[in-house]
Design goal:
Length: 195
C-alpha cells in the first residue's frame, strides 16, 4: 500500500498528505510517516513545493486530532456511566490527563507518535478543555510534519556528498536534541497542569 500511495504523491501531494494525516489521527492504519518522508524527499529534489506539502499535512493532522477529540468528548458521559474494569481504566486515563494533559498531548504528536491518535480520544473522553487540547495538539502536529518531511528533504540531499547538506543534517540533529531536552524539561517542570 505504501508504494501505491507514494506513486500518487506527485499528482495529489498536499491533498493526499492531508487525507492520510487526517485518517491517521482517527486511528486508521495508514503509512503517513512514510508518505511524509517521501514527500520531503520529493520537495528536496524540486519535484514538489515543500511549503504547500507541509501546510496540507499539518491541516489534515490538526483536523483529524480535533475530530477524534470531539467524538470522544461527546462520548465521555457514556464512558462515565459504565462500570467495572472499563470504568477503572477510564479513571486512570483521566488522572493521567489531569496531571500531564497538555504536555502529554504535545509530546504524543511528534516525539511519541504511536500514542498520538489514542491520546486524542483519551483527552476528549476525559474532559480536557478544547482550548488546552488545541494549544497542545496543533504545535505538536506542526513539529511532527516538519521533522518527518525535513528528514526526507535532508536525505534527498545528504547522500550526494554535498558538504553543505551534510552540515545541515548536523544542525537538524542538534536542533532535534534541543527539542528533546525541551520536551524533557517541560514534562518534568510543567507536567502537572489542570484540565
Amino acid at each position: 500500500m505504501t508504494e501505491w500511495l507514494e506513486a500518487l504523491l506527485p499528482q495529489w501531494g498536499p491533498l493526499l498528505l492531508a487525507a492520510s494525516a487526517f485518517l491517521s489521527c482517527l486511528m486508521v492504519p495508514l503509512p503517513t510517516s512514510a508518505l511524509l518522508i517521501a514527500a520531503g524527499a520529493l520537495g528536496g529534489t524540486g519535484h514538489l513545493d515543500l511549503p504547500v506539502l507541509v501546510a496540507g499535512a499539518w491541516l489534515g493532522a490538526a483536523a483529524g486530532d480535533l475530530t477524534a477529540f470531539s467524538l470522544a468528548h461527546r462520548l465521555g458521559p457514556r464512558l462515565e456511566a459504565m462500570g467495572g474494569r472499563r470504568k477503572a481504566l477510564f479513571d486512570r486515563a483521566r488522572q493521567f490527563i489531569t496531571h500531564r494533559g497538555p504536555i502529554a498531548v504535545f509530546l504524543a504528536r511528534w516525539l511519541i507518535t504511536p500514542l498520538g491518535p489514542a491520546s486524542n480520544y483519551v483527552a476528549g473522553a476525559t474532559g480536557m478543555k478544547p482550548a488546552r487540547f488545541v494549544a497542545a495538539s496543533v504545535p505538536g502536529e506542526f513539529l511532527w510534519v516538519v521533522t518527518q518531511m525535513g528528514a526526507g528533504y535532508l536525505f534527498s540531499h545528504g547522500f550526494r556528498g554535498d558538504v553543505d547538506a551534510i552540515g545541515k543534517c548536523g544542525i537538524v540533529i542538534i536542533l532535534l536534541l534541543g527539542l528533546l531536552w525541551l520536551a524533557h524539561h517541560l514534562w518534568h517542570r510543567h507536567g502537572r497542569p489542570t484540565i
